[in-house]
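User: Predict Alcohol dehydrogenase zinc-binding domain protein's structure from this.
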Amino acid sequence: MSTDTQINDNMKALVLENYGEAFKVKTLPVPVPGKGQVLVRIIASGVNPLDTKIKRGEGKHARQAVPAVLGLDLAGIVVAIGADVTDFKPGDEVYGMAGGIGGRQGTLAEYAAVDAALLAPKAANISMREAAALPLVFITAWEGLVDRAQVKAGQRVLIHGGAGGIGHVAIQLARAFGATVFATGSSHSLAVIGQLGATAIDYKNMSVKEYVDKYTDGEGFDIVFDTVGGETLSQSFEAVRTYTGHVVSALGWGSHSLAPLSFRGATYSGVFTLLPMLTGKGMQHHGDILKEASKLAANGQLKPLLDSRSLSLEDTNLAYEAIESGSARGKLVINT
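Assistant:
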């Protein structure tokens, strides 16, 4: 292991001892990076709705037993590297979706030993807080729009939940590829959607048929990206273009009739962003996706929306409560 600084033996971390309980501040040993890993001094930890589900014991698919340190996303500085790491060196500023599931230590701590394949260099023109807000949501958006739906210039893309965590970066990603973007939201989020460069659709005041007729002359959207799930996914099948349209969902876990999709001759695929961390397969693809995010950020084509609150590790319970209550306005980030 190589390092550029003296590292303390112990670190501060938040530990969830039992599902549904408050986090507790604990002192834990600083992890040692193994083969293919780097030790990151975490500067910021992004908070996602999935984190709150895991904390409540409802994220069984994340396979995170308690007691555990939670937290999926991080941005920080490499302070040591393990064997066989060649892409990073101590002092590098990095970010990634790096832990908090599958038995991996999460990011609500001062340090984490992270598989180097999951990380990417941070763009110089975004802050650590902005970088920590991006990994899960950008990777999900990329896997949906680029890997699955193969978005390209000239297409009409509909994003459900355009002001949400995934949705607001999906708008920016689709626009970067040259698509014309439309996004659904409730009345309080329509202005944000418009500011991101998409045509805002108030889903409470327009039926699927009405907005399909208005914005596609009844043809349907080339891509429909569902970030909401449930009935919204079923409605996506009614909004997609005949023959060549594609629906992709990040929350396609319910039971749905495929008849509307089949009658259009359209296609569907799902995204399960956690798979590489759960299986160990495909981790480098996540790092590569975040390299693309850094390029977009450097070009001014990607900027996450942050909640204005400045929160420390000790405030993390408040951050989780804000997400659960719906009071967060943008991505919440913990300063570690």
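The mean pLDDT is 95.
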